[in-house]
């Protein structure tokens, strides 16, 4: 089962590294236990295997496509798959019982979605997006809005979307111009264009609930004048009927990957009859949206890691079955060829994928667990989890998407020329992955967020808390002689981040904001390596502990030993590049500031 | 003209850095001068712009496709484009006048093909491959073979191919089994299967000349028993007629990129009537083929760099036209958005592409010039150029293909979400590029070649010669105070290669070949960074010299200054990763040797 992931690894992460059962102590999750949760997750994996994975290739070859008159045709199986997913409650499972959910922790819920993402990331896009949209309504919508929209989204009949991007504004949300005009009836009339709307109207759902950012007439300029609206494609008519709400799908975008996942251009209010319902208070839309956005960023990180996991598994399977060549030391050509997994370079490519994918997934679970802890705690503790999430969100999104692409390239490389052909899935996964560093904020945006907002927020408290978490793991690891040298290496790299920041902060202190932020992406790369190194140290500490408790091992000794081996691999092959980034960051003089455009010719 | 490249840069590389006019002093090229050569090249650029570039997208969307009965349908324009290319003599221009060519240096010939590769790399595949096949016949074929095949290949009527790979053997040429049986009539009868045959029979040419590796009955096992054959699809019948030669196209491979470039499966001798004509002596096929292969590896490197150049140019154009966002220091949202090229991170992405692409192209020209110098020199000098080419060939192929992919990913990133859509070419170029690290020897194969053969050949003489070349450039650069610190940095990195090799050589000396080669790819990455750093230092030295000779400047001062800026950028952002690779390479204990397969689960 589940050729696209590794069930043993997932179980280890969930219950041993990130200790899901600790969450089950809290009242909100006290209805759960490990065995039951694993059964729920196995049924998600089965759904992914039986319903999503078989259509991965077909959905790529028969992409979602605009019909020229307002509709988007999707794969004929999509409607059924969304319904099956909804039947197993995988759209709303995170919500409380009173909200129609299964009251699962995010940690468990997101693990379920990992299977969908790894099996067929386009399909998971539709259901994951609906889940996020419903969550936003649950958090900030009125009771009436919740009752009207959430159950239909959870049932998979309606699709939730997020409508932010406009053609002229792109990543710059302060420049959005979609206009909302108040009416005497409580609703607003909206007019504007939104592009790159994932799942934005198609033939597999009956209605579309667009969570839309727009500017109320007379609102202040910039992000402080943005409000959040619910805009359905068909609005409630009052007598139980639904009326077309003047939200027209004006076209779609054909893409190099995620071709089964519709990406559309929506036109609101062409006929001045597009009703919009304000969520929460006016002008606070961006802060509301950021709840969904932050969740979406973690999801994108997890999706990237999951797609890269599927590519890794495909390349591993190939490496175990394909005979070719001999060791360099074997000079006799009449000896039979060996399986390619025996070649050192193939192992290097597999291990590299493994440390990227499994390190990234571990960080995803770290973030999911923090979401849960934040939800169920109060006061200073809640603030701590909030700050940790704030600083880790751009990192998990960026590391998984950037390194996930590199990982999938290695999966292709393991297959050689075959990897480039459409006979194998690795090339599709490589194409699908490329979107992950772009949507929900590009790598550049995430890096500005990390260095410009998260590192400096509350006088550096988020960073301080993260450092404390990392130091705590280092501290435990140092108790084990086997891990001590690795713990020391990670400690040095953590110290290097501080010294680089000391250098950069001088620019910030002088008000040289642009210079401070110029190489934010390089800082992101450096910080990510340390954070993923931390996740590997954490896995290795857990493994050493489990190897000592001989009676309580869920996995084989080989599996636990592999954690230590992979930590060592990460520290040898990947982490040294953090020092290279530091070298780049502390050089004097800016190379990417304005003034030298003539150099581009 | 030529939106897909930078004519000023190409001219600078060709005449100022790599001093093409020095070649014109030799008798073979004395018919050429700079002005005339530039005119020839401008006409190639024009052909690329007018005939190749317009069909880039269409050829991707309407891929070459097998018809189910032996034929492959290509884009309707392909035949015409091949003929136009042939009319301008761009298939055979490298050949001597007496061979039907223009007797151009490789340096000039390959620069012409750069335009084709950057404009439409699939189309250049067909003509470049024909050129290589004809070159192989010219070098090792009989007069009759040359007269029969070369003129028709140069005229574009016939397609030349190379047929090496077999389904069961992949990269392992020692395992090929295609069998050749001698006959009393001088020809051989061949039987076997070849896959991944680029340009291997399609509807844009009338005949196909497959340069095929096969094993003569009773030949020794391994690579020492491989012979080279000419196998036409239609063989000369003796009376001027051509007879079908039992070479059946049994299918094609659909691919994630280079979709206009047919990749086929050929079946030789299904009806025991496939005549093959031995080239040169029996059992020497692999060494002959390596002439074509080495040329092809340099071509693939150049093709990768050229495709990445096209992606860079597309992203540069977008960055100069797209307004979005403001500097972080600008807090007033009513200020108009700025062009994205003014954002530091966009500049970083553009400069990164530029140092990769222009550094790689400079190394391509270095190799082309060495090919010419090798051809026109004798004795010890010829041997020197030969050894330099030997060691640089795997490096240029690998650096350009691996870093070219990274560069094209940055091109997508500059465009944001638009870069992922089929409305812009960057995503196609990213897809096309992925094949470059696979064909003509994967990155793993190139790296084994570098560390296992080229570094050690003739007691390390190739490496010593390369080091001397790099030291010579460093020596000149140190004379200029502006360049001295950069020269010193490169010198340190060159020394680091020596110290890493000192470490690795201990394994080789102990006969631990597998351990010595285990991280060959990491060594390749390190060595490539130093070699590209050398090319940047070379460009900067040239630029400083030109800035001092005020009256002889071909380009603007800005252009020359950009070379120094880009050198500095490369040394700051890219070169530090060489030290990280060194760190990986000198760690004790092998992590990718056999014995830990259990770690893969």
Characterize the structure shown.
The structure is a homodimer of 601-residue chains. With 601 residues, chain A is an alpha+beta fold. Chain A folds into three domains: 7-154, Butyryl-Coa Dehydrogenase, subunit A, domain 1; 159-283, Butyryl-CoA Dehydrogenase, subunit A, domain 2 (Beta Barrel); 442-589. Chain A has 19 helices and twelve strands. Chain A has helices at residues 7-17, 20-23, 34-52, 56-61, 78-87, 106-119, 121-140, 143-154, 285-321, 344-376, 379-415, 426-433, 443-454, 457-478, 484-509, 513-517, 520-548, 557-574, 576-585; strands at residues 65-66, 72-73, 158-163, 179-182, 188-198, 207-216, 227-232, 234-236, 242-244, 247-252, 263-268, 275-278. In chain A, α1 (7-17) crosses α10 (344-376), α10 packs antiparallel against α11 (379-415) and α15 (484-509) runs antiparallel to α17. Chain A is globular. Chain A starts with 6 loop residues before the first helix and ends in a 16-residue tail after the last helix. The model of chain A has no long low-confidence stretch (mean pLDDT 96). The interface between A and B is large, with 109 and 109 residues.
């Amino acid at each position: 089962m589940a050729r696209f992931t590794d069930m043993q690894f997932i179980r280890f992460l969930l219950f041993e590294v990130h200790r899901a059962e600790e969450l089950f102590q809290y009242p909100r999750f006290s209805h759960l236990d490990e065995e039951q949760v694993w059964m729920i997750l196995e049924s998600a994996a089965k759904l992914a295997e039986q319903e999503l994975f078989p259509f991965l290739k077909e959905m790529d070859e028969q992409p979602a496509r605009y019909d020229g008159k307002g509709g988007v045709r999707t794969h004929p199986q999509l409607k059924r798959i969304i319904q099956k997913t909804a039947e197993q409650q995988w759209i709303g499972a995170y919500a409380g019982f009173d909200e129609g959910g299964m009251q699962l922790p995010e940690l468990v819920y997101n693990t379920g979605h990992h299977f969908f993402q790894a099996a067929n990331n386009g399909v998971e896009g539709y259901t994951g997006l609906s889940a996020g949209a419903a969550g936003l309504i649950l958090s900030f919508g009125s009771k009436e809005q919740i009752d009207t929209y959430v159950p239909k989204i959870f049932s998979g009949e309606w699709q939730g979307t997020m409508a932010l991007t406009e053609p002229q504004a792109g990543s710059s949300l302060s420049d959005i111009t979609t206009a909302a005009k108040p009416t005497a009836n409580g609703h607003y009339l909206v007019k504007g264009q939104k592009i790159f709307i994932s799942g934005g109207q198609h033939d597999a759902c009956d209605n579309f609930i667009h969570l839309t950012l727009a500017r109320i007439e007379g609102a202040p300029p910039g992000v402080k004048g943005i409000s959040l609206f619910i805009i359905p494609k068909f609005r409630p008519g009052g007598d139980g009927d639904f009326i077309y709400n003047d939200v027209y799908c004006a076209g779609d975008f054909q893409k190099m990957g995620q071709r089964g996942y519709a990406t559309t251009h929506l036109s609101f209010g062409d006929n001045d009859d597009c009703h919009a319902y304000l969520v929460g208070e006016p002008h606070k839309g961006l802060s509301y949206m950021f709840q969904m956005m932050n969740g979406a960023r973690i999801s994108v990180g997890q999706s990237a890691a999951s797609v890269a996991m599927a590519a890794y598994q495909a390349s591993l399977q190939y490496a175990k079955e394909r005979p070719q060549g001999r060791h360099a030391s074997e000079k006799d050509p009449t000896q039979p060829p060996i399986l390619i997994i025996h070649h050192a370079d193939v192992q290097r490519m597999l291990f590299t994928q493994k440390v990227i994918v499994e390190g990234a997934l571990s960080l995803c679970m770290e973030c999911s667990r923090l979401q849960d802890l934040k939800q169920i705690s109060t006061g200073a503790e809640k603030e701590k989890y909030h700050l940790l999430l704030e600083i880790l969100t751009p990192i998990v999104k960026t590391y998984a998407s950037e390194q996930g692409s590199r990982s999938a390239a290695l999966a292709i490389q393991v297959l050689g020329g075959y990897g480039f052909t459409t006979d194998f899935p690795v090339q599709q996964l490589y194409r699908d992955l490329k979107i992950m560093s772009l949507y929900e904020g590009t790598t550049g945006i995430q890096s500005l967020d990390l260095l410009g907002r998260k590192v400096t927020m509350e006088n550096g408290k988020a960073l301080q808390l993260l450092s404390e978490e990392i130091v705590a793991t280092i501290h435990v690891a140092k108790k084990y002689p086997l891990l001590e040298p690795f713990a020391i290496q990670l400690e040095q790299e953590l110290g290097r981040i501080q010294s680089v920041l000391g250098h950069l902060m001088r620019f910030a202190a002088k008000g040289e904001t642009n210079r401070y932020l110029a190489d934010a992406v390089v800082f992101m790369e450096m910080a990510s390596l340390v954070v993923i190194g931390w996740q590997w140290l954490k896995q290795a500490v857990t493994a050493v502990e489990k190897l000592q408790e001989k009676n309580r091992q869920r996995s084989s000794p080989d599996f636990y030993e592999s954690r230590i081996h992979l930590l060592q691999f990460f520290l040898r092959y990947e982490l040294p590049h953090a020092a290279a980034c530091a070298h780049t960051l502390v050089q004097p003089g800016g190379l990417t500031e304005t003034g030298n455009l003539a150099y581009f010719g």
